[in-house]
Amino acid sequence: MKSADLPTVFIIDDDAGVRESIQDLLESVGLRARSFATTEEFLHSQRADGPSCLVLDVRLPGMSGLDFQLKLAETGIQIPIIFLTGHADIPMTVKAMKSGAVEFLTKPFREQELLDAIQQALARDRTIREQQGEMEGLRKRYETLTAREREVMGLVVTGMLNKQIASELGASETTVKIHRGHMMQKMQAGSVAELVRMADKVKLPNPK
After folding, report:
1. pTM of the entire structure?
2. Domain 144-202 belongs to what architecture?
3. Could you tell me which CATH number the domain at 3-135 has?
4. Any idea where the domains of the chain sit in the sequence?
5. pLDDT, tens digit, 9 for 90 and up, residues 90-124
6. Which conformational region is residue 100 in: left (phi greater than 0), alpha (psi within -120 to 50 degrees), or beta?
7. Distances, alpha carbon 14 to alpha carbons 56, 62, 108, 183, in Å
């Protein structure tokens, strides 16, 4: 596994003792960990582009953990978060979970509880990254289509036959078959059903 692909657990807690104990725990089970005293330190750090999650203290000096969760979402940083707190209350927990937190642990927590939450968060991040990679590949393939191939694709996914598409575009059926063949090959679609799923993901414009 490349270094960039190794999962990393980021820890943000203003308590040096907590940071150190969590980092020691994670490294003892073979996880790469990096710790920060403030959210600013985390934002200004260089982070490898691999699976990751964030262990975040709710009550930090300055910006709270919950506010930081919202800031990350607003800036487009998608990272699963596990919240830690010394004094949780139900409204706070609900707010964090509704905003996408993986877990909300009250100190002192059991080590296994934290490790389980981290594995769940890293699995979620891997899934998100796979989906993003799939979408990026799909968009790149769509961008290789000519304007006419895109038109053909838009009509194929509505269920039109080649003859109907030819009539719609004012082209011969043979020409449509050629464009359709090229389009299916470029999109790497094995069937019309698969093409329909792809079209839904790339959000094709409605054919005229």
Report:
1. 0.73
2. Orthogonal Bundle (1.10)
3. 3.40.50.2300
4. 3-135, 144-202
5. 777 777 887 788 888 988 889 999 999 999 999 99
6. left
7. 10, 11, 16, 55
